[in-house]
Amino acid sequence: MTITDFTVPSELANQYDLLYSERLYNKQGNDGTGDGYEGMDLVFHHALSAIHFQVQQKAEYSGYTIKLKSISLKDIKYKGSFSENITNENPSSFVSDPEWSPAAVVPTSYNIFTGDLKLTEIGGTNYHSDFSGAILLPQSFTSGDTAHITIDYSITPPSMSEISQTATVPLYKLSDEWEMGKRYTYNISIGYDTITISPTVIGWEDVNGDVAVN
User: Fold this and answer.
1) Is 78 left (phi over 0), alpha (psi -120 to 50) or beta?
2) Alpha-carbon dihedral sign for residues 115, 183, 137, 181
3) Is pTM, for the whole model, over 0.70?
4) Which residues does 71 contact at the CB level (< 8 Å), separation at least 6?
5) CB within 10 Å: which end of the chain, N or C, has fewer?
């Protein structure tokens, strides 16, 4: 299977997943008696990557207020071609090496969160995680890339006005690539004088679809 010039919309509401299925060879859906058909499991795999953010305040700063304003992914590759790269059709030794050929980087911005969320220090891995995720093209990152995360937030010290802050983090400093079928969770901790991001990767589960065969 080959898909050319597939584009992932920058607006989260317009994004949709892209799946490709494992192949079925000479399989029947009957129950062995010829009396009925029960269908077969069809296993799908994610052809895209998923991105998610979790945010917390680094510590409890007495008298300080820290608010998250926005999280954006910028200069991301959003258009490319996908191929399953089948090199052997024999059912007993089927070989497939699916991959993407992303198009050039463009200055597209994926706004993951926009609001005015007051953060609290809630410790451990208990992050604020009510942010929309993004489904994006798998791609690699090097030191020469401009792809980055932009985090806008504010700090209000005691008896002072709100101070706007912006943190820009190159993606190559966090991970080498976004792989197909994986969800990347970026854990963001915002402090009074530092901001840290610690990425983790959680594998997606296969999705089974029942296919009736007559």
Assistant:
1) alpha
2) negative
3) yes
4) 53, 55, 111, 112, 113, 131, 149, 150, 151, 152, 188
5) C
Residue 133's φ and ψ, nearest 5 degrees, are: -90, 165
Q: Report the C-alpha dihedral over residues 130, 131, 135, 137, rounded to 10 degrees.
A: -130
> What CATH number corresponds to the domain at position 14?
2.60.40.2630
Q: Which domain holds residue 104?
A: 2-211
Class of residue 20 by CB neighbours under 10 A (exposed 0-12, middle 13-18, buried 19+): middle
Q: Band of the pLDDT at 22, cuts 50, 70, 90?
A: confident
User: Which tokens belong to 161?
Assistant: 């006005």
**SS3 labels along 43-66:** EEEECCEEEEEEEEECCCCCCCEE
For residues 169 and 151, the answer to whether their CB atoms sit within 8 Å is: yes
Asked if 200 contacts 118 with a C-beta cutoff of 8 angstroms, the reply is no
Which of 89, 84, 78, 79 has its CA nearest to residue 99?
84
Amino acid at 131: F
Residue 104 has pLDDT above 90, yes or no: no
How far is Cα 188 from Cα 172, in angstroms, rounded to an integer? 16
